[in-house]
Amino acid sequence: MRSFIETFEIDIGRRNIVLASADLLEAPNWSPDGQTLVVNGDGHLFRLSVANPKLETIDTGCADECNNDHGLCPKGYRIAISHRLNGDSTIFTLPFEGGEPVQVTARNPSYWHGWSPDGRRLAFVGRRDGAFDIFTIPVAGGAEKRLTRDMGHCDGPDYTPDGAWIWFNSDKTGSAQLWRMRVDGSGLQQMTDDAFVNWFPHPDPTGKHVLYLAYPPGTTGHPRDRDVVLRLMPAEGGEARDLCRFNGGQGTINVPCWAPDGRAFAFVSYAAPE
């Protein structure tokens, strides 16, 4: 599977290939200074300068089975990772420059997805009692707070820039659709209801729009190697518009991917080996 790390400029609708690789790379984050992307591949994390694209390994210490659920804190000095510990995904944090990770979640599996704008809490997906639900937890660890229950399979929680809402996807009504709720779990609202199978909503830094990944009708889960669409919808709900279509899915935009000024986002498209 060939990977193409790309950026998309919202104002002009232009795709730009930052790096093409014969290796499987996933889930780009954008650093708060706008200079660097972070991706994962083969259990490791990499920095990638947008101006001078070359993969640089981030030292994650004992965490050598990192998956595609990772992201930087609002100020960019620390990164949350999801590492397979004793067979289950577990959330850790470590300095962005690299270092030994500090464990956050005691109950697992847990998959990181969002960092609160004030930097104090993490939003994540946890499988508890056989169900995948949305939780938050202090960055330093401690008691996890369950926000969803009896919502089917939930995934992809991401905070709005004002810290008031958490967006996520849930298949409560059948196929995966987008929802939002207040950060304490109240005020639950369904935000999409269409034929697409919608995953991984990401509010933009301006608070005006939400980017998400749309699969064809009937898709089960969030597989790789599918014809997908990246769509943009108003943050308060309403009609979405298509931005680009390509081969992608799992690994494309699993985690927050907006540039800090909200004028572009990063994603990964895929193609069969040559």
UniProtKB/TrEMBL annotation:
Signal peptide: none annotated. Belongs to the TolB family. InterPro entries: 6-blade_b-propeller_TolB-like, WD40. It comes from the Bacteria. This is Uncharacterized protein.
